[in-house]
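Quick one, T. Sequence first:
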Amino acid sequence: MLRHVVILGVSAAAAMLSLIAGASAQAAPPDSDAARLVGAPWEMANADRDKVCDVTFRTDRAAQGSKVEFDPNCGNLFPLVKDIVGWKFAENDLLRLVDGSGKTLIEFGEVETGVFEAPTPGVGLLFLQAPGGAVTASRPADDMFGEWVFTRAG
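Structure tokens:
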């Protein structure tokens, strides 16, 4: 009788592992770089910040990459977002917003922690960041090195 209990225990454990593996295959968590994007609100804006819209990154699979959602007015401000169906991180940590065929429509590079920029033909320079430009207060020392330009507003 003990033998059957052990076999049943091993079978139950195997079944549980199979269920867990199946669940993780369906909704695999994004890699660490991508995980920073998911769940938090982001805003996309042009360089003048006179066009700003909300962007939400999801882990759900899309026709290409993972799902991305734009606020309803975003398509009026930036018409090319109407064709975007997904997002993915590519080599060199580039964040790509892609259309249904996988073509990159916007390619963002991280210029500092939590701030991405994308020179986009026909649109100009686009930025992606936390709403209101709020980024974390603690920054690694590497973010402080380099050339800086300070300007007075107005």
